[in-house]
Write a structure and sequence with these properties.
13 helices; about 300 residues; mainly alpha; ABC transporter involved in vitamin B12 uptake, BtuC
C-alpha cells in the first residue's frame, strides 16, 4: 500500500470516528450521573439539520457549530424535564426523543436537501502541516477533530481528578447517599444530561458540516446507537471510548476500501458490518459481568425521588 493510500485511509477513519467520539463521550457523562438517555440518535440528527441550516443562511461555521450544539441541548432539556422532572421512564422517553428528532429533522430540512457546503476549514499549522505523512495525519484537520481529543481529555480529568467529577460519580452510584450529604442530585443529573445533549448536537454538526457537508434526511444512519454501544464497550472509561470510536470508525469505512479492491462481497453486507460488529462486541463484553459491575454506575436508569 502506497503512502498516499495509507494516509487517505487513515484520514477517512479519523473523519468517520469523530462524530462517534462526540456522541459517546457526552453519553458517558450522562450515564455516569445515573441517567440513561437513548435519544442520542434524535439529538444528533437535529444537531445536523440545525447546524447546516444556520451555516447555509449565515455562511458562518462558528454559528453553525453553536446551533448544532444548541439543538442537541434543547432536546436534552426536553428529555430531562420529562424523565427527571416528571419522573417518566428514561427508556421510553429516550426512544420517543429519537423518533421525535428524526421526524422533526426531516420536516425542518425539506428545503435543504441537495444543497452543498464547502465544509469546515482545515487548521493548517505552518511547517508542521507540510511534514510528509505526519503533517496530513496530525496537523491538517478542522477544529472539531482537535476538539474531540481535547474533550475526551477534559472529561477524563474532570471525572477522576476534580471534586465535581467525584460528586457526579457519587450521584450515579448512590443518589440517596449523595442526597443525604446535601448534594442536589437532580441538578447534577440535569447538568450532565444537557452536556450530553450538546455533545450529541456537535456530533450531528460534524456530520453535516465536515464529514458529508450537506443535509441528507436521517444522515446519522444509526450512529447514535453505535455511540450508546461504545459507552458499554469502553466500560465507561474515556480513554477506552476513544479507542473504541476509532475501531468502529475503521470498520465503517472498510466497505469503501473492500469495494475499491474489487472484492466480491455484497454491498448490503458491508453496510451492515458496523452494526454487526456492535452486536458482537456487546455480546463478548456482556460475558464479563465483573468488569461491568465494577465500572458501570450502580444507579444507571433508576429514577430518584428526593425526600420532600
Amino acid at each position: 500500500m502506497s503512502d498516499d493510500v495509507l494516509v487517505l485511509t487513515l484520514l477517512t477513519i479519523i473523519t468517520a470516528a469523530t462524530p462517534l467520539v462526540y456522541a459517546a463521550i457526552g453519553e458517558l457523562v450522562v450515564e455516569k450521573s445515573g441517567v440513561l438517555n437513548l435519544g442520542v440518535e434524535g439529538m444528533m440528527v437535529c444537531g445536523a439539520v440545525c447546524s447546516f441550516a444556520v451555516v447555509h443562511a449565515t455562511g458562518s461555521g462558528i454559528l453553525g457549530v453553536v446551533a448544532g450544539a444548541g439543538a442537541g441541548l434543547l432536546l436534552a432539556l426536553l428529555f430531562a424535564f420529562i424523565s427527571l422532572g416528571l419522573q417518566a421512564s428514561q427508556v421510553a422517553t429516550g426512544l420517543a426523543l429519537t423518533i421525535f428528532g428524526i421526524g422533526l429533522s426531516a420536516l425542518a430540512g425539506q428545503q435543504l436537501v441537495g444543497i452543498a457546503y464547502e465544509g469546515l476549514p482545515e487548521l493548517n499549522l505552518p511547517v508542521l502541516s507540510e511534514l510528509p505523512v505526519l503533517g496530513q495525519l496530525l496537523f491538517s484537520h478542522d477544529a472539531l477533530v482537535y476538539g474531540s481529543f481535547m474533550l475526551v481529555a477534559a472529561v477524563w480529568f474532570f471525572l477522576y481528578h476534580t471534586r465535581g467529577g467525584l460528586t457526579l460519580r457519587a450521584v450515579g452510584d448512590s443518589p440517596e447517599a449523595a442526597h443525604s450529604m446535601g448534594i442536589n442530585v437532580l441538578r447534577w443529573r440535569y447538568g450532565a444530561t444537557l452536556f450530553g445533549g450538546a455533545c450529541a448536537g456537535l456530533a450531528g454538526c460534524y456530520l453535516s458540516m465536515a464529514y458529508s457537508p450537506m443535509w441528507i434526511e436521517n444522515m446519522t444512519a444509526g450512529r447514535g446507537w453505535i455511540a450508546l454501544a461504545l459507552v458499554v464497550f469502553a466500560t465507561w472509561r474515556p480513554g477506552r471510548l476513544l479507542f473504541g470510536a476509532y475501531l468502529f470508525g475503521s470498520i465503517s469505512i472498510l466497505q469503501l476500501h473492500v469495494q475499491a479492491l474489487g472484492i466480491q462481497i455484497p454491498s448490503q453486507f458491508m453496510s451492515m458490518l458496523p452494526y454487526l460488529a456492535t452486536i458482537i462486541v456487546l455480546v463478548i463484553i456482556s460475558r464479563d459481568q465483573g468488569r461491568i459491575r465494577q465500572n458501570a454506575p450502580a444507579s444507571i436508569g433508576k429514577p430518584f425521588y428526593p425526600a420532600s
